[in-house]
Amino acid sequence: MGSNIASLTRINRKLKEELNISSNKINQLQEQINKNSRNVNEQTDEKFKDFGGQVDIKLETNSELLEEQNENKMRFVKIKNRINRIDCEYTCCENKCINSNISNGFCNSKNGFVCVFDVNNCCTKIKYYLTNNKRKENKWIRLFAQNSFSKGCCYGKGYSLYYFELTMIKEETNFCYAGIGLYNTTANISTVNNIPNTNTNIFLCNDATINWQDFQKFSWEDGDVFGYGIVYPARSDHATEPYVFFTKNGSKIGKEILLDKKDDVLCPFIGLLSCSAEINFGNDLNLKPFCYNLANNT
Hints:
Elements: H1 2-72, E1 74-76, E2 83-86, E3 113-119, E4 123-129, E5 141-145, E6 149-150, E7 159-170, E8 177-183, E9 202-205, E10 216-218, E11 225-232, E12 243-248, E13 251-258, E14 265-273, E15 275-280, H2 294-297
Parallel strand pairs: 1-7, 9-10
Antiparallel strand pairs: 2-5, 3-4, 4-15, 5-14, 6-14, 7-11, 7-15, 8-9, 8-14, 11-12, 12-13
C-alpha cells in the first residue's frame, strides 16, 4: 500500500513537471506569436502609409490634370432662342408692314415679304413670299434672334460655344441670297486690328458678280446647312480674344475671325432675299440635332 502511494506521488510530480514545461512552451509560443503579429502590423502600417501617399499623389495629379482639361474644354451653351423681330431698316417697305406681325403679316405695298413660324418648339422657319407684281420688288429683309450671345452667360472655366444653324430653302427664283451674322446693338463689331476681309458675317450667294462688302462668300444649294459659332474664353480670362467660325453641312469652312474683347453682347441675325430658311438654335437637340457634330468638336 505504501509503495503504491509513493509510486503515484512520483508519477504525479513528473506530470506536474511536464505540465509546467508545456505551459512555459505555450507562453513562449504565445509571446513569439504576439511579437510576429506586432511586426506584421508595423510592416502593414508602413505599407499602407506608402500606398496612401502614392494614392494622395495620384489623386492630386489627376485633379491637376482634370483642372487643366477643364481649362481647355469647350462646352456648348444652351439657351432657348428664336427669331422674333424684323429690322426696321431692312424690311418689306418703308411702311414696315410686317414688323408688327411677323407670323401673319403681309406687305401692303405688294412687295415680297416674310413670315416667321415656330416648328415643334425647336426651330424657326422663315418663309419668303415672292411678289407676283412685276412693278414691285423682293427686298433684302433682316431678322434678329430674341436672345443675344454674351460672355456673361459663359462657363467659369474653359471655353464656351454659342452655335446655331441655318438650312437654306430655295424659292421659285434664281436671283436670291442670304446672310448670317452677329449684330452689336451699341457699336459696330470690331475684329482684332480691324484686319481687312475679316467681317464676322457670311454671304450666301450663287451669283459670281455679286459681292457684299468684305463678307466671306459661299455658294449654296437647296437644303444646305450653314452653321455659325462664336467661342468665348472663360469669364476670368481677359487676355484671350473670342472668335467666330462657320460650317457647311457639318464641316468647317472659311477662316476663323478673332473679335475684339470689348464686343460682349452679340445678337444673331439672318438676312434673306427671295429665299427661305429654317433656323436651329439647339433648343431641342434630341428632336433636331445639329448637322455639325458638337460631341466631336467640344
